[in-house]
Amino acid sequence: MTDDILRPWDVRSSRTLVRDRWINLRADHCVTRRGVSLDPYYVLEYDDWVHVVALDEEDRLLMVRQYRHGVGAASLELPGGKLDAHESDPLAAGARELLEETGHATPSLRHLARLSPNPATHSNWIHVLYGEGAREVAPLNLDSGEDIVVERIPWREALELALGGGIVNSQHVGLLVIALAQAKGVKIGG
Fold first, then answer.
1. 72 and 140 co-located in one domain
2. Does residue 189 carry a pLDDT above 80?
């Protein structure tokens, strides 16, 4: 019985409400395995995202500070963005985003995890990448809606910021902890 309840819902119909270069909003008519009708059930269809935890040659984390309109304030974040339509390799997309947003490149970029930003409503994936030895090799190459200040923060200080509320993007807090746990052996809690 439990296995039957956890199987995918029956999608009776689906319609796109908004589709543009930023977002696709879909409304599905779903029927759960218990027979409950959910109409509409909204799904946000984004392209996959990639975020890079990159340390420079002095073991400082490369972060970007930028205005985020949703919260109406500047936010300290990991460099990253969406995979472009022609991209399928998160490593290549991450290297591109790191270079564009920080002017840095790293000789050692590796894929750590593929996670869902919100499995209830989002159809896309977040890829977290890790690299060391990043060097500044180019000027910033920002998108038209980006105004970014690059900050180099000792990674232990960045972890303290993440755990203390200085980094407000909850996804980035989690991604940073995952990367530092794997790469630096950081343990959180007991």
1. yes
2. no
SS3 175: helix
Residues 117 and 126 sit within 8 Å (Cβ to Cβ): yes
Q: Among 99, 106, 97, which residue's Cα sits nearest to residue 57?
A: 106
- Say yes or no to pLDDT of 190 above 70: no
Domain range for residue 106? Answer: 49-184
pLDDT tens string 76-107: 999 999 999 899 999 999 999 999 999 999 99
Non-local CB neighbours of 186 within 8 Å, separated by 6+ positions: 159, 177, 180
Query: For residue 46, which phi and psi values (nearest 5 degrees)?
Result: -100, 160
- Check: pTM over 0.90? Answer yes or no: yes
For the chain, the domain total comes to 2
Instruction: Using alpha carbons, list the distances in angstroms from residue 177 to 41, 121, 162, 188.
Output: 32, 24, 8, 8
Instruction: Report the SS3 class of residue 20.
Output: coil
pLDDT more than 90, % of the chain: 86
Cα–Cα nearest to 99, from 139, 65, 67: 139
